[in-house]
Amino acid sequence: MKTIALIAQKGGVGKTTIAVNLAVTVGMPTVLFDLDPQESAVMWADRRKTDSPHVEFLTERRLADGLKAAEQGKYGLAIIDTPPAAGPQAYAAVQAANLVLIPCRPSLVDLDAIRRTAQLIKSAGNPASAFVVFNAAPHSATTLLEDARAIVEGAGLSACPVILRERSAYRASWPIGRTVVEVEPTSKAAQEITELKDWVLAQLQVCTPEQVQSQEVAV
């Protein structure tokens, strides 16, 4: 089982939105552990009224046991959502992760927190790959994104090549416990989330069931 942690030192950057959209889109049994006391992911799952993905609130003290149980339960992927702070939840999530995603809006207010996030990742002592995911980016923001990448690299982090733009599909899907690929499957938002999913799985070196099936057909 592979594990992804989503962390950020600032609220409103889209951690939970990205977490739930990835959890639905990856195409394998996935557990989403919500370490945020606000339980936003849990409330999203309550509105969803299905068992997939499995969403569960945990404290950081129970994270290791939760991950062990998930692996024994044959989950292929665990996603950890954390509160917007450099606290024990984020620290524990980074230590447990194979891949760390740091959602960030490409604005100076949000980018100011990147250095603190980089310090947290370094202090956790986990060699897992960490990438900043630019989220809710303006549609015409080439220079802004170039400047944001420079700030990210200056903090010792890398930027994910997939950019998530500001899209109304996220606002439409959230209140009903759905994701953009379910509500608007042909939308640009769904396309971007799918691209992010493919990139994430490549980083984790994971094949989805669809990829395995296509390989078998090719053989």
**Strand elements, count:** 7
Percent helix, as a range, is 40-55%
- CATH architecture annotation name: 3-Layer(aba) Sandwich
Strand order of the largest sheet: 3-2-4-1-5-6-7
Task: Provide the number of structural domains.
Answer: 1
Largest pleated sheet: 7 strands, parallel
What is the top-level CATH class?
Answer: Alpha Beta
**Quick check: average pLDDT?**
91
Structural class, from secondary structure content?
Answer: alpha/beta
- Tertiary shape: globular
Head-to-tail CA distance between termini: 26 Å
Rg: 16 Å
The share of residues in extended strands comes to 15-25%
CATH level-4 homologous superfamily: P-loop containing nucleotide triphosphate hydrolases
Say what the CATH topology is. Rossmann fold
- H/E element order: EHEHEHEHEHHEHEHHHH
Number of helices: 11
Uncertain regions: pLDDT < 50 for 5+ in a row? 211-219
Tell me what you see in this structure.
This protein is of the alpha/beta class and 219 residues long. The protein has a single domain, classed as Rossmann fold (3-Layer(aba) Sandwich), CATH 3.40.50. Helix content is 47%, strand content 15%. It is built from eleven helices and seven strands. A seven-stranded parallel beta sheet has the order 3-2-4-1-5-6-7, with helices on both faces. Strand 6, helix 7 and strand 7 form a beta-alpha-beta unit. Helix 4 packs across helix 6. The longest helix is centred in the last third of the chain and has 17 residues.
Keywords:
219 residues; alpha/beta; Rossmann fold; seven-stranded parallel sheet; 11 helices; disordered C terminus
